[in-house]
Amino acid sequence: KGKRFPDSMAKTIPIWCCVLNRAIQRHRLRAINQGSGLNSETSAVVPNGDAEEYSGSSNWDSSVHLPVWVLETEKNAIEGHIEEWADLFESCGADIHSLALGLQKPLRPLWISQNTRIWLNEVPDHQLWDFTPIILVSASASGAVATQRTASEFSWRYIPGAGDDEESWARGLTPTLFWKHSYDLLDGGPDLCNQLVADIVEKDRVYRAQRGEHSPQVIVKHVKCSRHGLEPYTGDHTIIAQPMNSNPSTIAPANTQYSNGGHVVFWIGTSNLAVGSTMQVADGLADMDCILNCDSTSRLPPSSSEDSYLELPIVGSKDERFSLLNNLPKAVSFAKKNLIARRKMLLCCQNGEDISICVALAIITRLFSDTGKHDPECNYI
Q1: Which CATH number describes the domain made up of 265-367?
Q2: Alpha helices in 126-181 (DSSP H)
Q3: 139 alpha-carbon distance from chain centroid
Q4: For the chain, which residues make up each domain, given as ranges?
Q5: What are the φ/ψ torsions at residue 146 (nearest 5 degrees)?
Q6: Between 20 and 30 A from 186 (CA), which of 45, 125, 138, 270?
Q7: What are phi and psi of 354, to 5 degrees?
Q8: Entry pTM
Q9: CA-CA distance, 320 to 280, in Å (whole number)?
Q10: Each residue of 26-65: pLDDT tens digit?
């Protein structure tokens, strides 16, 4: 709100541009300094093979370029870390040689927003620029969020960033399909939008299936998330459903799900680990031996044994950056104790798709072998 550009465009991408430029500059200087003369590899890395001219680094800009609205103190802090980040980038095994071969001019970000004014007759030919431009375009309007009116009878509210994670709301619609049918979708209005999207996505799926292309069917069910299970209704919240395992007593293969009394959980292979949402499984915990609740906003009915229930009020990274990291040791320790006892364990968070997945990944990484088997002799620290 109130920003022309998100931090990813104002800081993160410019930092990456500078780190890449710095790493390439180091690589070229090392290539020049090796040996008494230029070999074929050095000539390819250094533009025009001019080692003498390049030795002073005068024609390769590796400084930080940030937008003017970034405070000078913050810019100085970023500049103080560039060398450190360039060291880390080089140590990670990146193919800097290929970058140096392909990039003949240093990277530099340029910012374009709704308030940008460009006179095309004053823009020089790109070949005359002394850098490789990274064009950062933001469609966000600065200022408060306001309801805007289009040429049609429907108004809309634009919220910057609300289009992220389109898999949770797009119902299988891709950008290509949207622009191909944009007039029909917009003219249909809110009441017909969902049905139009379903028809478009299904027709495209059939079209691709007839031509032998991969075209999995997308099933969208209307559900009401409550503590009493999943109830059909006509609201806007949707889930993407996959075929369910007909035998809840058997641990399903990876990435499949089963429903027991209307409660949906996802088993992770044969690990005895399952993930789910606290809103969906609160009343369906009879099949679980122990529960790790990572939901900071909801409490499940704890069992009588302290060994079978652990509540970790983990919040999202936007609210508390280190909340997940600080709670992982307790989560892994709890899981280790229960998995050794061969107990079926449920990991749950508010939506079953965020924090619980991160915790499950940490547990699997720490407590399971490369072949996917639980290792009771693991050395957890």
Answers
A1: 3.90.190.10
A2: 175-180
A3: 20
A4: 7-33+59-138, 147-210, 265-367
A5: -140, 150
A6: 138
A7: -125, -90
A8: 0.45
A9: 25
A10: 998 888 887 544 455 555 555 554 444 444 445 788 899 9
